[in-house]
Amino acid sequence: MEEKPSSKSVDRILVAVDGSEHSKKAADLAVDLAKKWEAELYLIHVLEEKGVPKEFKEFARIEKVPVSEYFNLVCQTGGFLGEAEVKAKAAGIKKVERICAQGNPADEIINAAERLGVDMVVLGSRGLGGFSRAIMGSVSTKVCTHVNCACVTVK
């Protein structure tokens, strides 16, 4: 009996990171899968304006610095987005790309998945969101419901 050559099932993986324990586990899983399948890995962090610390908003008001500068600082310095990138590169992932977005996390993750043509989205089942997400539905639920690819939620 002749064996069929194995085909690579996943070429592009998008993982959402927000610094929560669940997102760190999601990033670790995404790195492992990207390594196994030799897939491209896209790391996305979505900053909601309401997520900007009040101390920075006050500083920005006094110094007349646009809040968007905070967003730029978060994206440039990396933080937990940078940590995930370092792990991925240390694991030997050849293509790792960081994406910073601003807006509704679920919508931005869905849009990025579509724009990048990913085969899989990986995200934590719970993030750093607050009470409003508990009432309106979680990011992971909305993303898994609306993406047109495999979606893995990690606890």
Question: What is this entry, summarized?
Answer:
With 155 residues, this protein is α/β, with parallel strands linked by helices. The protein has seven helices and five strands, in the order E-H-E-H-H-H-E-H-E-H-H-E.
Which labels suit this protein?
155 residues; alpha/beta; Rossmann fold; 7 helices; 5 strands
Please provide a written account of the structure:
Helix content is 48%, strand content 19%. By secondary structure, it is α/β, with parallel strands linked by helices. It has one domain: 3-Layer(aba) Sandwich (Rossmann fold). A five-stranded parallel sheet has the order 3-2-1-4-5, sandwiched between helices. Helix 5 packs parallel to helix 7 (139-146). It is globular. Mean pLDDT is 82; it is low at 130-136.
CATH topology: Rossmann fold
CATH superfamily: HUPs
Domain module tally? 1
Largest sheet: 5 strands, parallel
- The proportion of residues forming helix, as a percent range, comes to 40-55%
CATH architecture: 3-Layer(aba) Sandwich
- Helical stretch tally: 7
Model regions low in confidence, pLDDT < 50 over at least 5 residues? 130-136
